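Morning F.,

Quick status update on the modeling queue. The single chain you submitted on Monday has been processed. Sequence for confirmation:
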Amino acid sequence: MGNWVENEGLSIFVVLVWLGLNVFLFWWYYLVYDVPPKFFYTRVLLGRALALARAPAACLNFNCMLILLPVCRNLLSFLRGSSACCSTRIRRQLDRNLTFHKMVAWMIALHTAIHTIAHLFNVEWSVQARVEEKGTLAAVLSGLGDKPGESYVNFFRQTIGSHCTGQTAESLADHNPEICHKNFSHWGKIEACPIPQFAGNPPMTWKWVVGPMFLYLCERLVRFWRSQQKVVITKVVIHPFKTIELQMMKKGFKMEVGQYIFVKCPAVSKLEWHPFTLTSAPEEDYFSIHVRIVGDWTEGLFNACGCDKQEFQEAWKLPKIAVDGPFGTASEDVFSYETVMLVGAGIGVTPFASVLKSVWYKYCHDATNLKLKKIYFYWLCRDTHAFEWFADLLQSLEAQMQEKNNAEFLSYNIYLTGWDETQATHFVVHHEEEKDVITGLKQKTLYGRPNWENEFKTIAGKHPGSRIGVFLCGPEGLADTLNKQSISNSEADPRGVHFIFNKENF
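C-alpha cells below.
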C-alpha cells in the first residue's frame, strides 16, 4: 500500500477532488433549479429537463476554467522549476499536465452531451406547451408576453426577446407560485395573484474563464515575444537513421537538463510549432536538438537546412528559426536521487543525452558535490543505425568514468528489439571481441526486450533502503509496465527501497 501511495497517491487524490467537485456542482445546481419556487413555473413547462440542462452547464463552466491551465507551460515551468516550495511529489504531478488536460476534455464532452440532450427535450416540451388546449396552466404560461409590459417564460414564440427562465424576486414577493398556480385563470384579476414576471439569469461563464484565458493570452504573448528574438544556427550535423542535429545560440537562453523547446521554421510553415527535447547540457555554450525525419514538416526542415545537398552549406543560407522555451520536464529531477534508472525508446533517448552530458561535465569539474551516485541506463531500439549517433557520447562517458576510477557509476544496457536470425548469427560470431561491433562500447548489445521484473529486483537488491528514480521517455505501453514494476518492487516499509516513476510528457 505504501509503495502505491508513493507513486500514485497524490495523482489519485487530485483526480478524486476534481471528480468530487464535479459531482458537488452538478448536484448543487440541480437542486437550485429543481426545488426553489423561483423556477416553479419553468418546471411546469419543462419538467426535470430544466435542472438537467443547468446542472451540467455549471460543470462546463468549472471544467472550461481548468482546461487551459494544464497547457500554460510557462506557468507550470515556473511552479515546478527549481523552486524550493515545490516538493518532488508536486513536481511529478505537474508533469502529468497533459493527462489531466485530456481528462478535463472528456468531462467537458460528457457534460456537453447531457446539456445538449436536455435542451432538446426543453425545445420539444416548449413547442408542445404552445399548442396545448386553452385553459391549462401550460397554455397560460406560454401565452405570457403576448401583451405589452409582460415578460415571458416560454421561449418558443413569434416575438424575439431574451430567454427568461425564472421568476423575479419582486414578482415572488407578490405572487407565490405554489399557491397562485391553482388560480391561474384569475391572474391579474385578484390582488393576491398578479401576473408573474420573469427574467433570465445574468451571464456567468465569463467569470469562470476570464482568469485562465488571461493566463493563456499571456502564454501566447510570451511565445510571440520569444519568436521575435534572434536564434542563430551554428552547426547542422547529419546523423544516421534520418536524424539531424541542430546546434543553436540565443541571447539569454538558459536551460536545465531534460527540458524541451518549441521550434518554428517559417521557411517550412509560418504557423506550426513542434516540441523537441534539448540534447545539449546546461554547461555547453549552445543548445541543441535532434530531429528525426518522419513527416512533411521534418522533411521540410531537412531540406531547408540544405541536408539534401552534397555541397557545404553556407551559414547565411540556413533558415531562420524561432524558439519558445525552455519548459520543464520530469528529467529535471534526475539529480534529486542518488540512484536512477533512465529508460529511452528509440528517439526517446534524447532527454537522457542532456542528462548524461551534464553528468560528464560535472564529473570533469567537481564530482564530489554530485548527489547522483549510480545510473542504470536502458536504451531500446528497433534498428542498428539508431545507435550510431548516440554511441559517441556513451564512449566518452565510459572513458571518463574509467579515468576517474569509477567505471561502476554508469551501467548501460542497449537492446536491439528489431533483430532477425541473420543479424543474431553475425553478432554471436563477434561476441567475444573486446568491444561491441555495433556501438564500439565494452558493454555488448543485447537482443530482444528487457525482463523488467528481473531488472527491478536486481537493482532493489543492490540499493536497499534507497529512493530510486525511474525516468522514461517512450510509449504508453512501456510506461504502464515500468509504473507497475515500480509499485510492485517497492517495499511497504518507509525505510525500504522505493521506485519513483516519472514519465516525459510534452
